[in-house]
Amino acid sequence: MSVDITIKNAVKIYGQNVVIPNLSVEVKKGEFFTLLGPSGCGKTTLLRMIAGFNTIEGGEFYFGDKLVNDLNPSKRNIGMVFQNYAIFPHLTVRQNVAFGLKTRKLSAEEVRSKTDEFLALMQIAEYAERLPEKLSGGQQQRVALARALVIQPDVLLMDEPLSNLDAKLRVEMRTVIKEIQNKLNITTVYVTHDQEEAMAVSDRIAVMEKGVIQQIGEPKDLYQRPANRFVAGFIGKTNMITRNLVVEGNTATLKISDSYALDFPGSEHHTSQQVLLSIRPEDYQILEEDEGGLAATVDDSIFLGLMTNYFVTLETGERADIIQESPLKSIYKRGSRIRVKIHREKINVFSEDGERNLQLEG
Amino acid sequence: MKIPKKKRTPLEVWNLIALSILLLYILFLVQPLFNLLKSSVIHSDGGFTLEYFKKFFSQKYYLSTLINSFKVSTAVTVFSLLIGIPLAYFYNLYEIKGKKPLEILIILCSMSAPFIGAYAWILLLGRQGLITKTIEAILPVTVPRIYGFNGIVLVLVTRLFPLVFLYVSGALKSIDNSLLEASENLGVSGMRRFFTVVMPLCMPSILAAALLVFMRSMADFGTPLLIGEGYRTFPVEIYNQYVGETSVNHNFAAAISVVAIVITALVFYLQKFVASHYRFSMNSLNTIERKKIHGIKNVLIHFYAYFLVFISLLPQIYLFYMSFRKTSSSGSVFTKGFSLDSYKIALKRMSSAIPNTIFIGGVSVLVVLFLAVLVAYLVVRRENVITNTIDTLSMLPYIIPGSVVGIALVITFSKRPLVLTGTATIMIIAMIVRRIPYTIRSSVAILQQIPMSVEEAGISLGASKLQTFFKITVPMMKNGILSGGILSWITIITELSTSIILYTSHTVTLTLSIYIFVVRGTEGPAAAMATILTLFTTLSLILFIKVSDGKEMVM
Questions:
Q1: Fewer CB atoms < 10 Å away: N or C end of chain B?
Q2: Bridge partners, A207 (sequence order)
């Protein structure tokens, strides 16, 4: 039976090092929840606290309404998929999958039928009698998943499960994981540092840095309305520039250059101040005509197929990364003089220190 | 809602195991060493005294045994490196015909008790030696005698260079071929590459091998006893002071033992200090490919490898031949013709030697393996104050010469409440104490290869900690444990320096019986027993190679 997970005021300390100062989060029943962040941000630490492999220095962890802080990991009924798969190399695929069932003292009949069911579900039935070393990375991953799921865990925990696979398999396996999770509707906590992977599989994502959750939200929200400068920079690419927000009466404007300014709605909530703008590469638009917007010089251009990436220097001296759908006509070469404008609704405006998104306020 | 914090239960099953092992160490290692130390500073009337140490350092004779030991060990180490490193280099870089059997023979060289080699060399190059007499009968020259410093070094080098070979081969196997190609690409090849790239990369292994060779030659007792004649080394002196026919002085023997431990400890830490400057890890994707070479170089390399092995195995070959020679009825004089008399006499007089060897060796190996796996697990997976203490204690026997282990145990277990002297039990304990550091190290190495997550996977699937250990961890370590066990077995059945202090007529093993036959001058049976022992070690070695399946050998 799938459960929800509630974590209240979790604290993790290694020696003198406070890795997680005070973290609270709720994972809904049946949800695919991802902990996303750079290495060392505490995401794996938190996952291992949920699993019971790390001590908990403070706070409360609930599965449903059951407090699990002091519950032995073997009693938590979790399915865990490890970064290196942690497949038992001395057991066959079948024995690996059956391992958890046998410790639960199920009848031989039941062990066999359940094992078969999950071998079939993960499409590894044909390798059942092989030793894991004879399997490819993707197949091992399937064994690890089958082994974790066959015990019908309350919670499925996955620690960077795709990081050891090559790029193509990674994409394939994340679809497999997402499908299985949907099918079994099991509460899943997934750890990754790959933002694209996180967006592809998750219902909700918690972006972590330095042991603190920076933002929790659906992939679309995180990308389009990041809560702060860190999230904006970590998820997707962005160009950051500092500008003045000028509020005069009912109008607020962002002064991009002497001759180019953008309207900013919600003047009633803000005062004139310096702000940090986060402009994603696709928020720039290269103008066909020779006037308006900002002047820029192309430093380099990279044709990527669907899109073309330009590295430009703006008239204000700042460099910018711009991406456009590839045109049929020839792309701008190095040294070309172009003019660009900014898609006002899509950009994000942060307080000068980057800690607050002004659009999410008021 | 506030929940009272519950401490993790301190009496978890692994903590209990750790405590029991610690207790064993205190009982059978710490206590005996303490008693040894005590006995080295206690006067016969019970008061404190430093007279034994004064005696040792003030009399030139005693001090010279120490200096002699030092000279021997240094010479043996230098020569073993000079012989072993090139051998490993040739073996791993060039195609040598019959390389698999050659490797087995090289390892076999290291696996006989050195004193048996010494004894055979006396038969070959001694005053009445076969080679000596043959040469001197034909040519008007005097063949240099085997006795003394030269003989000891010869015997020990032919026994110990294989350790250097094994260590350096291991290091060479972990060097990525691209490193060699890169250096060649940058214009450095041949000898220059050997000294600027290969040697530095092998340095950690070379230093480890050097330490092992030094320790073994420092502690070796049988070789200098048989072949040293006037050249005395201190393990011999300890033995003479302890069980010798003249002027037995147990306290003085204890004092020499303490000096010995201090010296080996200093050497140990010196090596650790030097080795700490050469620490790096290598990750070899493409191991070095053996190259075919042609012409005179090829011939020389083959000659070097096979001649070395031939010389080192000559003692065994000769004893094998001698064991089938006819002897006088007492077994002491060889006569013309061949017979199995030597075997008959040997097995009649020492009928219990083979069962004793199997019993003492077998029990010791089982206990060593059991404890070593537990200790390795504690050290690698459950680091805390107790396991750290166990880790340190477990390495202690590494620096204690075998005869000293024997004396410390006798001192401790001759009196109540626990009288063990003269029993097979004390022999077994001694073997366990001596062998356990090596088995722990190899088990630790194996365990470190096993990612923690595999055990966590077991636990997350609902298995208990002990279930996980026995169902997951131990089976994954199985091959490594088994091969470690066979190596321990070989070392234990060829061991002399500890057992010679502890044995009685009921606990004579094969190695001891050879020693006794040699000392009594009954050479036929000695050769027969030596051949049986060689057979034992050879079979064990073949088993080891089957089990370890081409993996590295950790001595």
A1: N
A2: A36, A215
* Chain A interface, best mutation among B461, B482, B549, by max A CB count within 10 A: B461
Residue A294 maps to which CATH number?
Answer: 2.40.50.140
Q: Is cis: bond before B417, omega within 30 of 0?
A: yes
Same domain, A201 and A303: no
The DSSP-derived string for A212-225 is: EEEEEE-HHHHHHS
Strand partners, B203: none
Contact of A80 with A159, CB cutoff 8 Å: yes
Which one, of B419, B413, B423, B406, lies nearest residue B500 by Cα?
Answer: B406
Q: How far is B89 from chain A (nearest CA, A)?
A: 32
Coil, helix or strand at residue A249: coil
**Three-state SS at B118:** helix
Per-residue pLDDT of chain A (362 residues; tens, 9 = 90+): 689 999 999 999 988 889 999 999 999 999 999 999 999 899 999 999 999 888 899 999 999 999 999 888 888 899 999 988 888 988 899 999 999 998 888 899 999 999 999 999 999 999 999 988 888 888 999 999 999 999 999 999 999 999 888 888 889 999 999 999 999 999 999 999 999 999 999 999 999 999 999 999 999 999 999 999 999 999 999 999 999 998 888 888 898 888 888 888 877 778 889 999 999 999 999 998 887 889 999 999 999 999 999 999 999 999 999 999 998 888 888 999 999 999 988 999 999 998 999 888 76
Domain end among A233, A255, A282: A233
pTM above 0.80, yes or no: no
Last residue of a domain, one of A184, A204, A233: A233
CA B45 to CA B27: how far, in whole Å? 26
Is there a single domain that holds both residue A92 and residue A215? yes
> Given A69, A84, A147, which is nearest B461 (Cβ)?
A147
Q: Tell me the HSE value of B10 on the side-chain side, using a 13 A CA sphere.
A: 4
Q: Within this chain, do residues A193 and A207 fall inside the same structural domain, yes or no?
A: yes
Using alpha carbons only, give the angle B518, B519, B524 rounded to the nearest 5 degrees.
30
Cβ–Cβ under 8 Å, residues B301 and B293: yes
Residues of A with Cβ-Cβ distance to B456 under 8 angstroms: 51, 53, 73, 80, 82, 86
Domains identified in chain A, total number: 2
Mean of the per-residue pLDDT values for chain B? 86
- CB contact set of B426 (below 8 Å; sequence gap of 6+): B409, B410, B413, B420, B502
CB contact under 8 A, B460 and A74: yes
**d(C-alpha A54, C-alpha A68), whole Å:** 12
Residue keyed to tokens 């057991």? A91
For residue A309, the SS3 value is strand
Same domain for A332 and A194, yes or no, is: no
* Residue-number span of the structural domain to which A325 is assigned: 237-360
Beta strands in chain A (DSSP E): 5-14, 17-27, 32-36, 58-63, 66-67, 78-81, 155-159, 187-192, 204-209, 212-217, 239-248, 251-257, 260-263, 273-279, 284-286, 294-303, 307-314, 319-325, 337-342, 348-351
DSSP letters spanning A89-136: TTS-HHHHHHHHHHHTT--HHHHHHHHHHHHHHTT-GGGTTS-GGGS-
Give the pLDDT of residue A350.
93
Pairing of strands A5-14, A58-63: antiparallel
From chain A, the residues in CB contact with B472 under 8 A are 88
Which tokens is B326 given? 């006819």
Encoding tokens for residue A124?
């590894």
The pLDDT, as a whole number, for residue B140 is 80
Same domain, residue pair A148 and A187: yes
